[in-house]
Amino acid sequence: MAAARGVEIVAEGVAVRGFEGTVVADVDLDARPGSLSVLAGPAGSGRTALMLALGARFKIARGRIRIDGTELPRGAKAARRRIAVARATPAIDLEERLTVGELITERRAIGGPRVTGESLADAFDLVDLACDRRTLAGELSRVEQLLLLLALAAAEQPAGVLVDDVDAGIAGSDLERAWYAVRALAHSGPTVVATSTATPPPGPAAPDLVVALPGHDTHLRARRAARR
């Protein structure tokens, strides 16, 4: 699978409004190409809406978002073509009644010529997932479901990937496996924006940037700051 160059996503003073008013306000973020950014916060903190806004899929109330230097909403359509959504609950998630093979066929239809047999094989190797295509998605463990979603998105060879609820229903060694897969995806080229309830633990799979919601504290990894 050819390494995709990641997009740069820059947010300045971004606010996102939900049904009950503004849920996220004054968020600044600079996601460099090929980096992993995590939006961490409890349910209702606006993390999914903010993630979708950073991927040009949700309208912001105020502030600015630029993707590769182009301010949204101008260029939003082009950005959506380059940024794949692995999961955005509840709207985009696995159809548990479908088999792995059926989900692959569905992704081929969505991704078009970018999704090839080679890109699929490489994507499954990247996230370290092996499963029978006849297996129902609902029979997979929670971490396997997440890895499958990541692999299907990665097979499109995108410049960016959005993945919601990384730690939903996953704990212990499975959670460590999940974060390693998300980090491996970012290392392969695309810029990854993920959400979780808890801040990911430190270690080799730790993100480059964490935005803690609510409160919007931003934390950079030391190694990323050193590259500036």
From TrEMBL:
Residue ranges of domain AAA+ ATPase in the record: 33-224
InterPro entries, per database record: AAA+_ATPase, ABC_AA/LPS_Transport, ABC_transporter-like_ATP-bd, P-loop_NTPase
S-adenosyl-L-methionine recorded as keyword: no
GO MF annotations in UniProt: ATP binding; ATP hydrolysis activity
GO cellular component term of the entry, any: plasma membrane
Keyword vocabulary terms for this entry: ATP-binding, Nucleotide-binding, Transport
Keyword set includes Cell cycle: no
Xref: Pfam families: ABC_tran (PF00005)
Designated name of the protein: ATP-binding cassette domain-containing protein
Species, as recorded: Yinghuangia soli
